[in-house]
Amino acid sequence: MAMRGYYFSMDNELVQQIAAGDIALKDLKIDKYPGLDIDRTWEAIHFLLCGSIADGEPPLGYVVPITSDKGIDFGSFGAFSLRAEQVAEALQAMSELDEAQLRLRYDFPVMLKEEVYPLEAGIHSDEDADEFFAYLLQHFNEIRRFYSQTAAEGKGLIFYIF
After folding, report:
1. What is residue 1's predicted lDDT score, i.e. its pLDDT?
2. Is 151 exposed, middle or buried (0-12, 13-18, 19+ CB in 10 A)?
3. Within 34-152, where are the H helices?
4. What is the spatial distance between Cα 112 and Cα 30, in angstroms, rounded to a whole number?
5. What span, in angstroms and rounded, lies between the C-alpha atoms of 69 and 72?
6. Which CATH superfamily is domain 5-161 in?
7. Sequence ranges of the domains in the chain
8. Is the whole model's pTM more than 0.85, yes or no?
9. Cα separation values, 38 from 5, 17, 21, 100, 119, Å
């Protein structure tokens, strides 16, 4: 089963109510909110930016917010929220990274060894490194655009894996 990452933005106050448990995320019609599907890149982008598969340090840890302590009950894997100010912090941090800087952070052999999703040792080889980087870069740029729009509107967001 492929696990895909999905963001959607909404009013900051609503995000805070969901995070506090005052409103159940499952009760909302999430398809009515602006969203972004980042395919299967979620863990690899988090690893690229933070050097780990979860619990990365802010503000880059906010880009793909997969933490062990702030989850929201939703779906099979839960969801994660960011307030408007956290979205803005993440956007600022992403804005300081260009393709060359991302490539310096990129360590495909380590990602293979650590079996960072969606990679699996033995199935992928070092020959796939450039293609995989291009796949990550495309989605990173889409995330940056989505965060830019979300921040410009003063909204927060929810991220979940499905």
Report:
1. 64
2. buried
3. 42-50, 84-95, 99-105, 108-113, 129-152
4. 34
5. 9
6. YfbM-like super family (3.40.1760.10)
7. 5-161
8. yes
9. 5, 25, 26, 21, 15
